[in-house]
Amino acid sequence: MTTMTVPGAPRVDKDADPGVLRKALGAHEFGVLAATVAIFLYGTFFVNNFLTGDNLLSVVQQITFIGIIGTGMTLLIVAGEIDLSVGSQYGFLSVLMAYSVTQWQLPILVSALLVMALGVVTGAIYGVITAVFKVPSFVVTLAGLAILRGFALLVTDGQPLQGSTNSAYHSLVGGNAIGSLAAQTVWMVAVMAAFGWILSRTKFGYDVYATGGNMKAALNAGIRAVRVKILCFCITGALCGLASVILVGWLGSANPLTGNGVELSVIAAVVVGGASLTGGVGSVTGTLLGALVAGLIGNLLVLIGVDGNWQQVATGALILAAVLVNRFIATRQAAMR
Amino acid sequence: MSIAKGGSSANLTRRGILGGSLALAAGATLSACKAGSKSDSDSATSAAGGTPTAGKKVIFVVHEKNTFFAPVQKGFETFGKAAGWSTQFIGPPQFDQATVVNMMQNAVNAKPDGLILTRIDTTSYDGVIKAAQEAGIPVILSNVASDGYEKLGVGFVGQDFVPAGIAAGQQILQYIAKHTGRRDGAIIVGKIQAGNSALEQRGQGIKQAVRDFNSANGTNFTTEDLIVGTEEAGAVAKIDGRHARDPRSVVGWAGTAFECQFVATWARSKNLVGKFANGGFDMTSPVLAGIKDASIDYTIGQNPWAQGWVAASLLAQQIFPGYPSFHYDTGAEIVDSTNVAKVSAREAKLTS
């Protein structure tokens, strides 16, 4: 890299460690971090009942499903693919979880493993069709969205299904872990921490970024990019399964319309979190912040007393603002290179 | 090539400004939204400051904000204004179980003086209802309560769905005789949504009426479900698809909500009005217009105004002086060509 120094200006070596502050300010997650802090401060100073332990824990609990499924979606988007069927998959697997426990009377652990395994199989099918047969993932998973919702309706005959009444199962996934801290929050944190580490610290994570950044170059570098993409689809499917297991344990039932529109919330969280839909950019931390922004906005709008119709407008506007900031930072970074 | 000019401070400043701007934008947006919604509640509070519950904050959370709920909201806000309440009416644009629960939980966290909720299945919403009760917030259910709601110790304002479905079944059979004169054929039981216990119970009522009619008269009508959704183009395509499969088999379309308006749209476009019976539930403008132009034969009303107004009034007496709420049946009003003008005039008052 050639470096040109402007006369009179102090010389800065771009390859040197940029420092924590500069790194934070230049990160793709800066926009969403700024949004999170801004919204949090607004709530703290101007909104009654916002800054209470129960309310904040409740907000974090509410983003559980977006966070867990969003983790898989982050891997996929970083790998340059997308899964539009996650809402339907989560709905179908929820129904299957409830059905296998109550109708087939399978033990809960077996049902949970079955549901997650089916998520993996679904992901593998998407992955093979996308990566091997070169059909765009948004087309494959759009078809999956319709098929899986149809299966959910077929299995239930359109009716909500009762889940298990097993108290241990409920406590494990739907109860409180410590004080008011919900067990499902702990599950989300564990999943996001594990995959955040995998994505940022392991060879597999490096391969995911390389595959999404430039698949041809990744293949030339000896990365098994096709396998990486299939694995990312499988992980997303498994996480949809895990979210379903948690949902059924928490609410005690499964509705065939569960997850209706959730794919958009998940993709919004990932993109607001700084990921690029063209692949190669994104992080689990960003997705967590993206989900948190959505959760905080939803919570604040109710606490403030905003009418339901305005909530849609405000949510969209604030998400757009966060994405614009991300875009601005990305452009600035590109110009600085 | 890159140009190093020690410009980190410039970046810092711009990003600082950007972050600050975002904070201001977020605050301004939220404030603007609040300002937009505040006028009703503020004027409400000042309009009736002398009532025993004046100044109370009450939140109504529905499982899906669709056109049906407009008069419910109007009834709720009208009572709220008279009582001097600050009111909030919320719900997701499309149903998702966890989203609805989260919205209800946010409403509990807002520490209102009362909550009105819809409970569309038998377990999912019980946790949040109990959380509200533990926080000392009175709760009443409206529109749909599902089996077992009594165990929660809450009242319910809404229709008795199975008897209303039976009334709808009797209507569709009457109009099948009028339009087709046939003694057999398929009656399509339309649904705008799967997994909604109210619609399922109405569907059960329709099927029961058909079974009873077949037994009593030796007819051979069959029923089949068709989920059409709430989006008109998609619904019309599904209706057309079912009809195209075996056009002669269909003698009637018996909706469990307002899907008869989609059947009417489709029938008008295909010049099929009057070739079969068509009816449903609810009194949305397109449904009433369809009865006027004869593309819809009947609808069963459930007094949505009362589901807002009466629910709010029962909640008011629960807040002060403390009478427990109870079940209030909002009925099954049959609307057809004989009374549609009068009903339309009444319903128009809710949108003026």
Strand tally of chain B = 13
DSSP summary, beta strand count of chain A: 5
Largest sheet of chain A: 2 strands, antiparallel
The chain pair with the largest interface is: A-B, 85 and 68 residues
Shape of chain A: globular
Question: Can you offer a commentary on this structure?
Answer:
Chain A has one domain: ABC transporter involved in vitamin B12 uptake, BtuC, CATH 1.10.3470. Chain A is built from 15 helices and five strands. Chain A has helices spanning 20-26, 30-46, 53-62, 64-78, 86-102, 108-132, 137-156, 167-174, 183-201, 203-213, 215-220, 225-251, 262-272, 284-304, 308-336, and strands spanning 3-5, 161-162, 176-178, 181-182, 253-254. In chain A, strands 2-5 form a two-stranded antiparallel sheet. In chain A, strands 3-4 form a two-stranded antiparallel sheet. In chain A, α2 runs parallel beside α14 (284-304). Chain A is globular and about 60 Å long. With 352 residues, chain B is α/β, with parallel strands linked by helices. Chain B folds into two domains: 38-158 and 305-330, 3-Layer(aba) Sandwich (Rossmann fold); 161-301, Response regulator (Rossmann fold). Chain B is built from eleven helices and 13 strands. Chain B has helices at 8-47, 69-83, 97-109, 126-134, 161-179, 197-217, 232-245, 260-269, 285-292, 304-319, 340-351, and strands at residues 2-4, 57-61, 86-90, 114-117, 139-142, 155-158, 184-191, 220-227, 250-255, 277-281, 298-301, 327-329, 333-335. In chain B, α6 (197-217) links the parallel β7 and β8. In chain B, α9 (285-292) packs antiparallel against α11 (340-351). Chain B starts with a strand and ends with a helix. The model of chain B is unreliable at 1-24 and 33-47 (pLDDT under 50). The interface between A and B is large, with 85 and 68 residues.
